[in-house]
Amino acid sequence: MIIILKQNADQAAVKDLCRELEGRGLSIHESQGAETHILGLVGDTKSIAESWLRASPVVEDVRRVSEPYKKANRKFHPEDTVVNVSGVKVGGGHFAVIAGPCSVESESQIGTVAASVQAAGAKLLRGGAFKPRTSPYSFQGMRAEGLELLRHARAKTGMPIVTEIMNNEHLPLFADVDLIQIGARNMQNFELLKAVGRSGRPVLLKRGLSATLEELVMSAEYIMAEGNDQVILCERGIRTFETSMRNTLDISAVPMLKKMTHLPVVIDPSHAAGIAWMVQPLAAAAVAAGADGLMVEVHNDPAHALCDGAQSLTPAQFSALMDKLRPLVSLMGKTLD
């Protein structure tokens, strides 16, 4: 249920109303924008009469919400959420580019890539330390050592780091990671979602290979229900009957998620197709659809990458991509952070 308050409502009366609602076992999510002041009621609202609420001198209107997600719902929070990742803003007109290798392979590799993507305009450095792989015989990442190499790269460049967590037992290792990534395979690992929610760290949540958009938003709700509203949604392609590419980028997810939720939405064009030459057109489509950022894989030597070399751009290709995207981002009324 949503309560829309009158403009310039008496704050003492608003507090009295909130206390009475909380006394009935409801929690309140408050959102105040330039022109709207909303109270979102979370809990069993069946016993709350709309006529009783409308009788309050501070209430303008009351609406019931049928969607199961409350905190992530745009109806509860009409204005876009801006996620602050150690000074880099994502959402609300701020367009952020995350770039780096699929996996951290060595100090020289991550250092070289970090310097190159930063020079091209990326603001956040990605790199996998723990790697979920389909085959148990594939490279699984450098794990804790990879995290340390990411920290070294951050110290040299000043770029916040983005890396994937696979297990809530690893959370202490991620205490200083700027943006914790939940991968597609863990989108519905609910204990992990709750753990990162309690951590208070910004979270990048990737859509599962066969997940609906509502299931993605409900996973974000798990994080937000723990008190963490710093969540970025990531569309990275879904599995369809098409076999000419790794996955199918659901570009329609961007405007639909924007309607459903107030959270920032970014696109990962690298995983979407799994083909390097497709990254540029898919990235441009993402910008045009209204995405708040991109997550692009860049490797200094894709032919010899230990993970996903076929979808990785070289530093020169990434720089050319950024040059093509800048005017498009500006045309969409966003700033390239």
UniProtKB/TrEMBL annotation:
<dbReference type="GO" id="GO:0003849">
    <property type="term" value="F:3-deoxy-7-phosphoheptulonate synthase activity"/>
</dbReference>
<dbReference type="GO" id="GO:0016832">
    <property type="term" value="F:aldehyde-lyase activity"/>
</dbReference>
<dbReference type="InterPro" id="IPR013785">
    <property type="entry name" value="Aldolase_TIM"/>
</dbReference>
<protein>
    <submittedName>
        <fullName>3-deoxy-7-phosphoheptulonate synthase</fullName>
        <ecNumber>2.5.1.54</ecNumber>
    </submittedName>
</protein>
<feature type="domain" description="DAHP synthase ferredoxin-like">
    <location>
        <begin position="1"/>
        <end position="67"/>
    </location>
</feature>
<feature type="domain" description="DAHP synthetase I/KDSA">
    <location>
        <begin position="84"/>
        <end position="321"/>
    </location>
</feature>
<dbReference type="GO" id="GO:0009073">
    <property type="term" value="P:aromatic amino acid family biosynthetic process"/>
</dbReference>
<dbReference type="Pfam" id="PF18152">
    <property type="entry name" value="DAHP_snth_FXD"/>
</dbReference>
<keyword id="KW-0808">Transferase</keyword>
<dbReference type="InterPro" id="IPR052899">
    <property type="entry name" value="Class-I_DAHP_synthase"/>
</dbReference>
<dbReference type="Pfam" id="PF00793">
    <property type="entry name" value="DAHP_synth_1"/>
</dbReference>
<dbReference type="InterPro" id="IPR041071">
    <property type="entry name" value="DAHP_snth_FXD"/>
</dbReference>
<dbReference type="InterPro" id="IPR006268">
    <property type="entry name" value="DAHP_syn_2"/>
</dbReference>
<dbReference type="InterPro" id="IPR006218">
    <property type="entry name" value="DAHP1/KDSA"/>
</dbReference>
